[in-house]
Each structure stands twice: as structure tokens, then as C-alpha cells.
Write a structure and sequence with these properties.
Blueprint (H helix, E strand, L loop, with lengths): L2 H11 L2 H12 L5 E2 H8 L3 H13 L3 E6 L2 E6 L1 H12 L7 H11 L4
Antiparallel strand pairs: 1-3, 2-3
Helix pairs in contact: 1-4, 2-4, 3-4
Length: 110
């Protein structure tokens, strides 16, 4: 991942509602969720939710596809993986044992 892409993704997540949206979409993989359902679950007006989803899409973190009359959004897990690896790639200055607690925390959820 390039630094500009990482900055864009991190910027998209640097707001409470968008972070909530992304985490909700990660929980609903692989099926994704319709935009209206995301707005209902998070109690956010639909027009506001559209703006948040657009920012997440421009940040490369969500993908969308039209299903009949609704748009279904999915978290881009490849982008999440790339961002996470970008953040920890040079972890602990070449001392992998220092990163062991981080890896141990991630292992059960994945």
C-alpha cells in the first residue's frame, strides 16, 4: 500500500460514524448490507449515510453493487489487510518477538 492510499483510508476512518459503519460492514461479511439498513441500524439519516459511505468508498475501504432498487455495501477486506500490514510492516525494528502480543490478539478473530 502506498502512503497516499493509507492516508486516505485512515482519514475516512477518522470519524465516529464512518468507523461504526466500517466495523458494522466487517461484521456482515461476506453478505454486506443495504445502505438503508446501515442507516437504520446506526440511526443515521439516509442522506448523511450516503455521504459517509461515499467517503469510505473513496478511501478504498468499501465496495458497492446495485441489487435491484438498493445498493449493497461490503467492507473491502483486502484493503483492510493492506492497511493493517502497512501500519505494522516495520513493527518493532526487526524484533518480531515484540510484535507477538499484537499477533496473538489478532489470531482468534481471524
Amino acid at each position: 500500500m502506498e502512503i497516499d492510499s493509507a492516508i486516505s483510508a485512515l482519514g475516512a476512518l477518522a470519524q465516529g460514524t464512518r468507523l461504526d459503519v466500517f466495523r458494522l460492514l466487517v461484521r456482515h461479511e461476506p453478505d454486506g448490507m443495504a445502505a438503508g439498513e446501515i442507516a437504520r441500524q446506526l440511526r443515521v439519516p439516509q442522506n448523511t449515510m450516503s455521504a459517509h459511505l461515499g467517503i469510505l468508498a473513496r478511501g478504498g475501504l468499501v465496495r458497492s453493487e446495485r441489487h435491484s432498487r438498493s445498493i449493497v455495501y461490503r467492507a473491502d477486506l483486502d484493503a483492510l489487510r493492506a492497511l493493517t500490514l502497512f501500519l505494522v510492516k516495520d513493527c518493532c525494528a526487526g524484533s518480531p518477538e515484540l510484535c507477538a502480543p499484537l499477533i496473538a490478539e489478532l489470531t482468534p478473530c481471524c
